[in-house]
Amino acid sequence: MTSKTTPLYEVHERLGAKFVEFHGWAMPVQYSGVIGEHECVREKAGLFDVSHMGEFLIFGPKAEEFVNHMVTNDVSALDEDQCMYTPMCYENGTIVDDLLVYVHNKEHYMLVVNAGNIEKDCSWIEKNLKDMGYDTDDVSLRDVSETTAMIALQGPKAEDIIRGVTDPDVTYLSRFRFREDVMFSDVKAVVSRTGYTGEDGFEIYVKSDDAEETWDILMEAGEKQGLHPIGLGARDTLRLEAGLMLYGNDIDETTTPLEATIGWTVKFDKRDFIGRDELLRQHADGLEKKLVGFEVEGKAVAREGYKVYNADGESGHVTSGSYSPTLKRNIGLAYVKAEDSELGSGIEVEVREKRYKAKVVNLPFIKR
């Protein structure tokens, strides 16, 4: 099976990127090296091609009602030109996907979903549209993933770089705010103050045909600021340091938002959303497992699937793990028994048939 490519694939080839297959996409995993790219984003700025992500438009007079039913967070609390992070759950409370919801207006929403879940999410939304009896005059769904490119500019110098290359200026945007009428030269874009690195930054949505021009404008604007292209390798270590979940690793169809410590995204005061009853039950009964951050003593790097132990035996498993270029320590995320989830709890991680001491620490690992 041939991997899909983003509109910027040839740009990455010219830049000497090394590629990896990621959910059916040929994506740049690194250019100059993961640690150097990671440090570039933490200290200066980096540019990411994230055009493999999916984008759905939901519009119609009952769009708000429908979207609010589909997700656990409360989109009715959003203003126009504001966006929100939220899980979307099944009836049993487990996670279909985690996504961003953009409110253009109360009859026009954009959902940004994970690359590996585009088809699944689309089918789930269509099923619920049908089951709830909506017709196209009430709510319509349009998958615009194939015609939309997404570029992320992240890092402490991101604001300086984007200042002066857009009309109007977007540096006034606060966190989780966006503007939909932004021009990069003759390219129209949606620009939001969002990201997946723990740094300040912007995410930029353009037509696929305009991706290369937008990329070039930003790279040229950031040349003096030390802007570099960044691959998926550094994107993963950056998001891990920031304590951000990766679907398929840290959250999936077997975990709930409460177990994943993103319970703040579940608004029980909403009258109705998919999974509410089961999540309420879990909230009342208490959790059997919880996602925690941990640091490993010594040089062992914990990887996905490695077993975690307490004094009495097996407690859980690692979902993400890496060396932290910023902290200079080995860190990770793991599901453990609830009794092992308290800050400072001592656990052990099995790495290549040897157990290493670790302790539960606060998330995020670093905070900007």
Layout of helices and strands, plus pairs?
Layout: H1 9-14, E1 18-22, E2 25-30, H2 34-43, E3 46-49, E4 54-59, H3 63-70, E5 82-89, E6 95-105, E7 108-113, H4 118-131, E8 140-143, E9 148-154, H5 158-162, E10 178-184, E11 187-192, E12 201-207, H6 211-221, E13 228-230, H7 232-241, H8 276-285, E14 289-296, E15 307-310, E16 313-324, E17 329-337, E18 346-351, E19 354-361
Parallel strand pairs: 3-13
Antiparallel strand pairs: 1-2, 3-9, 4-7, 4-8, 5-6, 6-7, 9-12, 10-11, 11-12, 14-17, 14-19, 15-16, 15-18, 16-17, 18-19
Helix pairs in contact: 2-7
Would you kindly provide a written description of the structure presented here, covering whatever features stand out?
There is one protein chain. The chain has helices spanning 9-14, 34-43, 63-70, 118-131, 158-162, 211-221, 232-241, 276-285, and strands at 18-22, 25-30, 46-49, 54-59, 82-89, 95-105, 108-113, 140-143, 148-154, 178-184, 187-192, 201-207, 228-230, 289-296, 307-310, 313-324, 329-337, 346-351, 354-361. The longest helix is centred in the middle third of the chain and has 14 residues, at 118-131. A hairpin with a 2-residue loop joins strand 15 and strand 16 (313-324). The strands form 4 sheets. Strands 10-11-12-9-3-13 form a 6-stranded mixed sheet. The model has no long low-confidence stretch (mean pLDDT 98). It has 368 residues and is of the alpha+beta class. It folds into 3 domains: 9-50 and 147-241, Probable tRNA modification gtpase trme, domain 1 (Gyrase A, domain 2, 2-Layer Sandwich), CATH 3.30.1360; 54-146, Alpha-Beta Plaits (2-Layer Sandwich); 288-361, Elongation Factor Tu (Ef-tu), domain 3 (Beta Barrel).
